[in-house]
Amino acid sequence: MTKSTYTNNYKCLLNIIISIRKKHNITQKSLANKLNSSQSNISKIENGDRRIDIIEFIELVNAIGYNPLLVLTELLKNWEYNS
Q1: What's the burial of 72, exposed, middle or buried (CB within 10 Å: 0-12/13-18/19+)?
Q2: In the list 9, 15, 30, 32, which could disulfide-bond 37, CB 3.0-4.6 Å?
Q3: Left if phi > 0, otherwise alpha if psi is -120 to 50, otherwise beta: which for 42?
Q4: How many Å apart are CA 17 and CA 54, to the nearest integer?
């Protein structure tokens, strides 16, 4: 099994998160502040250098002001079952 951070599905998840962050006009720095984190940590997450678990995913998407279920729905629409 390939580590999830190197799969197309994980890259798709990150692209969705980045897209909604940008649509909400939220910078990495302001998102980091909402999460009591650093801008470099958000950058590492978005670049796939740091993997997030489900709890971090929910906190991240909530901090953007978006519904995590909508992100998962979008991800599943684009899911590659053989990646």
Answers
A1: middle
A2: 32
A3: alpha
A4: 13
Who's near 68: CB < 8 A, 6+ residues apart? 57, 58, 61, 62
Which residues lie closer than 8 Å to 20 by C-beta, 6 or more apart? Answer: 61, 64, 66, 71
Diameter of the chain measured on Cα atoms:
37
Residues whose CB falls within 8 Å of the CB of residue 26, separated by 6 or more in sequence, listed in order: 64, 65
Residues 57, 64: Cα–Cα separation, whole Å: 11
Q: Low-confidence residues of the chain, pLDDT below 50?
A: none
Query: Which pLDDT value is given to residue 83?
Result: 55
CA dihedral (80, 75, 37, 43) positive or negative: positive
What pLDDT is attached to residue 5? 79
What would the two tokens of residue 80 be? 């590659």
Residue 3: predicted pLDDT: 73
